[in-house]
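hey
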């Protein structure tokens, strides 16, 4: 498998049934990192024996649907499933048991803001088919990333991960550029950010919209951003938008 496929990632699971000595994990990982054809590129998770999770590995899974709530020193991954009750396909799955679009985007944004990788699982049928409801959800996430991917791909955690006053605004960064991703559209059309420190040359844009946005310094600290006017729509509102902040600290 390593000679033919040269995998970039080895994702081990089910390790908690026995210690690493039973699985011979130590010898395998030593070979993988020192002598295998992918020794210079491969990365592994943390499930290699009882007691290994969240302690050893190229990146940590720690637990299914793990949310650390704070920035970790070690690279980590949040593994989630569109079916809230199963990692495999269930013929008796109901619509209420499938994550909605907002939940997917919320998990993705929170995970990336805290420096994690987001793994989103779907269970195919025995014929290998991805059922339509899963297709719809994944395509919706893809459309969201088409617009907002600049705030996600190749991003890094900022000095602040989320607004202290709310858990609906999360931050990412790329060098000097800061992205504030807000999960709910403010009713008055004004986005209030207390964490960024603006300067006279600060520019604000909304991903997916042309032109710059007007802003002003907040009377306390931070900034008030005037968002574009959104026409009323009978459709459910999209979940999650990202403002790009240039010239802030």
């Amino acid at each position: 498998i390593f000679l033919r496929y040269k995998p970039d990632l080895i994702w081990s699971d089910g390790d908690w049934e026995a210690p690493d000595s039973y699985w011979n994990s130590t010898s395998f990982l030593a070979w993988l990192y020192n002598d295998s054809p992918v020794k210079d590129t491969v990365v592994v998770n943390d499930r290699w024996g009882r007691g290994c999770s969240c302690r050893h590995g190229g990146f940590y899974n720690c637990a299914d649907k793990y949310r650390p709530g704070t920035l970790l020193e070690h690279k980590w991954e949040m593994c989630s499933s569109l079916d809230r009750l199963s990692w495999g396909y269930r013929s008796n799955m109901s619509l209420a048991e499938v994550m909605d679009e907002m939940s997917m985007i919320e998990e993705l944004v929170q995970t990336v803001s805290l420096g994690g990788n987001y793994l989103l699982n779907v269970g195919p049928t025995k014929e290998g088919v991805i059922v339509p409801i899963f297709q719809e959800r994944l395509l919706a996430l893809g459309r969201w990333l088409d617009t907002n991917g600049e705030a996600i791909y190749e991003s890094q955690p900022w000095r602040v991960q989320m607004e202290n006053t709310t858990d609906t605004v999360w931050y990412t960064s790329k060098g000097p550029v800061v992205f504030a991703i807000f999960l709910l559209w403010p009713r008055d059309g004004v986005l209030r950010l207390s964490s960024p420190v603006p300067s006279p040359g600060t520019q604000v844009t909304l991903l997916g919209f042309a032109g710059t946005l007007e802003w002003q310094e907040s009377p306390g600290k931070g900034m008030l951003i005037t968002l574009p006017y959104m026409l009323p729509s009978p459709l459910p509102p999209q979940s999650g938008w990202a403002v790009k902040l240039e010239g802030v600290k």
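Residues 132-148 form the longest helix (17 residues). The chain has two domains: 1-151, 156-246.
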